[in-house]
Design a protein that fits this description.
single chain; 431 residues; alpha/beta; 7-stranded mixed sheet; 4-stranded mixed sheet; 13 helices; 16% strand; globular
Length: 431
């Protein structure tokens, strides 16, 4: 039976009446999405779209992936919830699997429901272990919607409360295209990393508890640190007994061609946060640490919905699907194809100032003739791409970076179609 949908305009009207105004939406003329099938979305009028954003790096295994939804449906009809203070099997099996796929000696997990909770838990664990709650974060980072998560977020538009938690210090982010120190890589010799040591020496107690960073800064505009950056950071932190927390909420689970993005830098974090793609749409998150660090967290710390049987079943199915279908390999191959195409478009159209990223986490920064950010051009392009059946994201401090974070199941033809459409639209604007 055909369902009668209320449509985009009616949804907007209800949002204005019943949803807090902090929640915006993309597009001048948004659509109501009603169905998903792997890398495709469908609106209430039956129009098909290629999704090149994956719900902001969530649907890595594709929308309504049958292999995953079958496991979820099987579990939801058997046992949905008893709280993790009771014994169920899925969450310990998932923790065992995470210990196997995460880098280095990361072993013990704590499950929760959102990326924000995972960030909070990781920082709490670091404070318990080190005895110090001072935090160093990066400018341009985004780590959640809680009070502390916003306080360590280095993007003003995402900091609702302008009175942040104390004890937080911000280091320059490794944004090579617009270096905050006015230098050029590699001649800079990673000066932005070295600034972290200056901050520790001059602005902290000299032994901060944690340094937190995304391996690729998503909301900052797919800001991708140069090779060697995290190794330098880890060397500095070791001098001051400061823990390295890596936030893999957007970058994890195959997106960069490796299971976790930090693996591209040859560094093992002390604690790692994950969420989004772990559930492929099911609400689940986790933070994981080495035994030495995790075993210091002994005070009661249950989470009502953390690691519930249904979300854990989704997580197990996701990890199995990524491995069985070699999604890391596809992310690497399709990412190289997409990045190569974007670099070719950059040579053709000067409005693309920079192309960056790893695997299928890529950004194209749009600029004006003088190099200033051009968010208006990007908004026009995204609107036109949507009208042509392509859903692409945007981010960046100036909201001028076109973000490609598609399901990792996309095909070579999908990439070609996206590049060809962008080429056509840019060509029209260049005339």
């Amino acid at each position: 039976m055909e369902k009668n949908y209320i449509g985009a305009q009616k949804i907007i009207e209800k949002k204005k009446q019943f949803i807090m105004p902090c929640l915006g939406h993309f597009y001048r003329e948004p659509r109501q999405f009603v169905r998903g099938d792997m890398q495709y979305l469908f609106d209430n009028e039956g129009k098909k779209y290629l999704d090149m954003y994956a719900g902001v790096s969530v649907i890595n295994c594709g929308h309504c992936n049958k292999a995953i939804t079958e496991k979820i449906c099987e579990q939801v009809q058997t046992l949905q919830h008893v709280c993790n203070i009771y014994l169920t099997e899925n969450f310990v099996n998932l923790a065992e699997k995470l210990a196997a796929v995460t880098p280095g000696n990361l072993k013990k997990s704590f499950f929760c429901s959102t990326g924000s909770e995972a960030t909070e838990g990781a920082l709490l664990t670091a404070a318990v272990y080190t005895g110090n709650n001072e935090i160093i974060a990066l400018r341009g980072g985004l780590h959640g919607r809680t009070k502390l998560g916003m306080s360590i977020t280095g993007i003003n538009m995402w900091r609702t409360d302008k009175n942040p938690v104390g004890g937080i210090h911000f280091a320059p982010n490794p944004y090579c295209y617009r270096c905050p120190l006015g230098k050029k890589y590699p001649e800079c010799d990673l000066s932005c990393a070295d600034m972290t040591e200056d901050i520790i020496k001059t602005a902290t107690s000299g032994r901060p508890g944690a340094f937190i960073a995304e391996p690729i800064q998503g909301n900052a505009g797919i800001v991708t640190p140069p090779a060697g950056y995290f190794k330098r950071i880890k060397e500095i932190l070791a001098k001051y007994n400061t823990l390295l927390i890596i936030d893999e909420v957007q970058t994890g689970f195959g997106r960069t061609g490796k299971m976790f993005a930090i693996e591209n830098y040859g560094v093992t974090p002390d604690i790692m946060c994950m969420a989004k793609a772990l559930g492929n749409g099911a609400p689940i998150s986790a933070f994981i640490a080495s035994e030495e660090i995790a075993d210091r967290y002994t005070s009661p710390g249950a989470s009502t919905l953390g690691g519930n049987p249904v979300s854990s079943a989704a997580g197990l199915a996701v990890l199995n699907y990524i491995e069985e279908h070699r999604l890391c390999d596809n992310a690497k191959e399709r990412g190289e194809q997409l990045k190569g195409g974007l670099l070719a478009l950059q040579k053709k159209y000067p409005v693309i100032g920079d192309v960056r990223g790893i695997g299928l986490m890529l950004g194209a920064e749009f600029i004006k003739a003088d190099g200033a950010p051009d968010p208006e051009l990007l908004d026009d392009l995204l609107e036109e791409m949507k009208d042509k059946g392509f859903i692409v994201g945007k981010n960046g401090l100036a909201r001028n970076v076109m973000a490609f974070q598609p399901p990792l199941v996309i095909s070579a033809q999908n990439v070609d179609d996206t590049l060809n459409m962008l080429d056509m639209l840019l060509g029209k604007k260049a005339k």
